[in-house]
Structure formats: structure tokens, C-alpha cells
UniProtKB/TrEMBL annotation:
Gene3D superfamilies: Ribonuclease H-like superfamily/Ribonuclease H. Residues 132-155 have a biased composition (Basic residues). SUPFAM superfamilies: Ribonuclease H-like. One of its GO terms (molecular function) is transposase activity. Residues 130-155 are annotated as: Disordered. This is Integrase catalytic domain-containing protein. GO terms for biological process: DNA integration; DNA recombination; transposition. Signal peptide: none annotated. It holds the Pfam family HTH_38. Keywords: DNA recombination. It comes from the Bacteria.
Length: 332
């Protein structure tokens, strides 16, 4: 049985050889062959340590040593701080990303020691973060999405091209995107997801018996929780066959994406991705309780988001409503 060669860092002598061959205008492939290294290893070495086309082997070796030494400490920064560790672990288990956790700590959790996203990643990869890594790995199995177009065209649609510029630019709270998450072939039921374009607040409703009347009822329930709702951008799904009736019922305007152009409603598509971590594709949605669906809604609304300056969608909505209330009091 052939043994696989273990990875080893570049030695000081190898770095001197790289410098000599680089001065002689050797190609990366030839340098790699001479040192019996991969081309990517040579490329990475030069990308990290070359300055204005010049490569200094002594400086490069020292920088590599410092990087390795600091790298070993990075994850320990979280381990040695119990309050920070508790916060990071809790938010990772709530499916917050290392980038958003880092941003949230720097901007809003001033009592905690600031850490970069790389430090959070180092902690996950350390022996102390194995439980977190296992949780994150469970979320990574994905299937390719099937196209979900309808053979029957909806009549009287207003397409996204007619959508006003202020909606495209996310200028106000109340403009949203909608989508349906469907069960697997043997399952039944769907989940309606309405996500605000500016606030990123997601509202979910589970529909077991999928009829147009039940779909309209679910929209109505979400409108009660999200009274700011003014417009919806959505797909050409059959449950929206009576979309003109729905517009009158909710007193809103509905815009439709072009067929198979799901990227035209990227906000709700991104929101769906997080729902699918807990309700994987192919699942029978009817097996999940309405209470669980509402739990997911709260979870989505408590996500720290880089685009919201690391506030949560719930905080964005709450701040908007407080400002609106103050304005109405002043006007009186």
C-alpha cells in the first residue's frame, strides 16, 4: 500500500532556492518541479511574501514563523475568555456566521473582547470547537434545486421591470420578497416566506392543505405581524393565480420575477437557505409543527447581519417602529 506524503512547511533552504530560481526567471511550474512541491504551494508562497516583484527568503521565512506562532494562539483567545467563549458558542449553534459574530462583537457587544472572523474559524477548527464543527458540517449537505415553474401562465402580471427605483434601492421598510418552500415528493405542505428587502425580517407561515384560499389566509396572517407591508416581489407560482384578488385583500402591489430568474428575489432566496438548514430539501413539511415554524421565524429575525451594520432584522424593525411612533406623537 502506497503511503501518502505528509504536508510539510517550506524550509529556509527551499526559500533561498525559490529566490535564486525567481531571479533566473524560472516559471512557477519549473520551480515547483525542482523543489518537488506543488505549483499552488509556490504560488501561495510568492503571493504572501513577494513585494513589488521581489522575493526575500530571510524575511519570508521569518514571516512564516510569526504566522504559525500567532495562528496557534488565535483560537486560544476565545478559550481563555469564558464570557467570550459562551457568546461565540451560543451564536455559532444558532447558525450565526463567524463574520457576523465578529462584526456584532466589535460594533455592539462592547463588554466582550473583540475578535476577528479568522479567530472564530480557528476556534471552530481547534479541539475545543469540535462540537461546533460537527453542528456546522451537518448543515452542508445540499441538493440541486429543481425548477418549479408552472405550466399554466398567470394572467395580468406586473413584472419586476415596472418596479419603481426606490424599491430596487431598498429605500423603505415595507417592500418585501416572497417564496414558497415545498415538501419532498412524498410529503405535503409548503412554507410561505416573506422577507423584507430593507429590514431583512423574515415571516414564515406553514400551509398544510395547499389551496389558494389557505395561501391568501397565510398572507393575511403575515400582514398582521408585518403591517408595514406595501409591495411583494415573487415567483410565478400557481398558488398566486388569483394575485389581483390578493392585492386588493392586502392593499399591496405584487411584482413578478421573470420565469426561472430566482436571482431577481435574492433576499428571500438567501433567507430560504437558512430555513433549509433546519428543514432540509426533500422533507415532509407537514411533519413539522406550527410552533417550530414560528421558532424558525424568530431565529431568522435574530441573525446578526453585515448589511444591517451587525444589527438583527428584529432590531431594525423595532427601531423603525419606535421612530414612527415618535413622529406621530410629535405631529399630535
Amino acid at each position: 500500500m502506497k503511503k501518502t506524503k505528509k504536508f510539510s512547511h517550506l524550509s529556509k533552504s527551499e526559500r533561498h532556492e525559490i529566490a535564486i530560481l525567481r531571479r533566473k526567471k524560472y516559471r512557477l511550474g519549473d520551480i515547483a518541479k525542482t523543489l518537488k512541491r506543488s505549483v499552488s504551494a509556490i504560488y501561495d508562497e510568492l503571493a504572501r511574501n513577494e513585494t513589488r516583484g521581489r522575493y526575500g527568503p530571510i524575511k519570508a521565512h521569518h514571516q512564516a514563523y510569526v504566522r504559525r506562532k500567532y495562528s496557534k494562539y488565535q483560537g486560544m483567545k476565545i478559550v481563555k475568555n469564558p464570557g467570550l467563549r459562551e457568546f461565540v458558542e451560543k451564536e455559532l449553534l444558532n447558525d450565526q456566521s463567524p463574520t457576523n459574530i465578529s462584526g456584532r462583537i466589535k460594533k455592539h457587544e462592547k463588554c466582550l473582547l473583540p475578535v476577528s472572523k479568522n479567530i472564530v474559524y480557528k476556534y471552530i477548527k481547534s479541539p475545543y470547537g469540535r462540537r461546533i464543527e460537527h453542528h456546522r458540517n451537518k448543515q452542508k449537505n445540499r441538493r440541486r434545486r429543481r425548477r418549479r415553474g408552472s405550466s399554466k401562465k398567470l394572467q395580468g402580471r406586473t413584472f419586476i421591470d415596472k418596479r419603481p427605483q426606490y424599491i430596487n434601492e431598498r429605500q423603505r421598510i415595507g417592500d418585501a420578497e416572497a417564496d414558497f418552500l415545498v415538501s419532498g415528493r412524498s410529503g405535503k405542505g409548503i412554507i410561505l416566506n416573506i422577507t423584507g428587502r430593507k429590514s431583512r425580517a423574515a415571516f414564515l407561515e406553514q400551509i398544510i392543505a395547499v389551496t389558494i384560499d389557505n395561501v391568501h389566509l397565510s398572507f393575511k396572517r403575515i400582514k398582521k405581524r408585518f403591517p408595514e407591508l406595501k409591495t411583494i416581489t415573487t415567483d410565478n407560482d400557481l398558488p398566486l393565480e388569483r394575485h389581483k384578488e390578493l392585492e386588493k385583500l392586502l392593499k399591496i402591489k405584487i411584482y413578478f420575477c421573470h420565469q426561472y430568474h430566482s436571482w431577481e428575489k435574492g433576499t428571500v432566496e438567501n433567507s430560504n437557505k437558512y430555513v433549509r438548514r433546519d428543514i432540509p430539501k426533500g422533507s415532509d413539511i407537514s411533519k413539522y409543527s406550527k410552533r417550530f415554524t414560528r421558532f424558525l421565524e424568530r431565529k431568522l429575525q435574530r441573525r446578526y447581519m453585515n448589511c444591517l451594520d451587525h444589527f438583527t432584522p428584529a432590531e431594525m424593525l423595532e427601531n423603525h417602529r419606535k421612530r414612527k411612533k415618535r413622529r406621530s406623537v410629535k405631529e399630535k
